[in-house]
Amino acid sequence: MRRDHFELEAHNIDWVETGEAPAEPKVVIDFNGPKETLTDRLTDAEGTLLEASETDVAFRLQDPLDDPDAAGVVSVTDRVTGDFLLELNEEADDVLRFVRAAREYGQSADDDGGRYSVVIRIDGETLATYSKSTFLVYDANGSLLRSKSLIPSGVEL
After folding, report:
1. 80 Cβ partners below 8 Å, 6+ apart?
2. How far apart are CA 79 and CA 153, in angstroms?
3. What are phi and psi of 60, to 5 degrees?
4. For the whole model, what pTM was predicted?
5. Biggest alpha carbon distance in the chain?
6. Cβ-Cβ contacts under 8 Å for 22 (sequence gap 6 or more)
7. Any residues with CB less than 8 A from the CB of 4 and at least 6 apart, and which?
8. Which residue of 29, 32, 45, 148 has the fewest C-beta atoms within 10 A of its own C-beta?
């Protein structure tokens, strides 16, 4: 699977800057490649779709964070095996805005850790929807950026 087979679209993040009513941030990842390839990656050995608790979402910077054109890779991984289920390139500013919206949404909903949804589609048809509360952000050297990440209180990494 190639990264250019994916398109990412974020929803419900502008309210943080405009002062509108909080809404749960949602990211829609649309895959425009071979359906079987992504479906196989998102299912376990028995052919059952992985659940939200079996996946992790992260962003790995490829450039220094202070670079105004910093970019990186958004990934969804299998929590048990660590296998990459999908990866796509994104601009750092866009991802960090999304994480901030998820954190602030959690605070407005009395949820210390924040919340967001991930919808994975194949050619516009929803394959999986995950409700998540963790989004890890790493620098270009692979070090966790705790202050930029969405980590629920009480979670030890």
Report:
1. 54
2. 19
3. -115, 115
4. 0.91
5. 46
6. 15, 104, 105, 108, 109
7. none
8. 45
Which positions ≥6 away from 12 have C-beta within 8 Å? 23, 24, 25, 26, 101, 105
CB 25 within 8 A of CB 12: yes
Tokens 């949404």 -> residue = 105
Beta strands 26-31 and 116-122 are: parallel
Degrees to nearest 5, angle at CA 124 with 76 and 49: 45
Q: How far apart are CA 10 and CA 94, in angstroms?
A: 9
Query: Rounded distance, CA 157 to CA 149, Å?
Result: 12
Q: Which pLDDT tens digits describe the chain residue by residue (157 residues)? A: 789 899 999 999 999 999 899 999 999 999 999 999 999 999 998 999 999 999 999 999 999 999 999 999 999 999 999 999 999 999 999 999 999 999 999 888 765 556 999 999 999 999 999 999 999 999 999 999 999 999 987 665 5
Q: Is 147 helix (H, G, I), strand (E, B) or coil?
A: helix
Query: Would you state the structure tokens that stand for residue 106, as one six-digit string?
Result: 């959690």
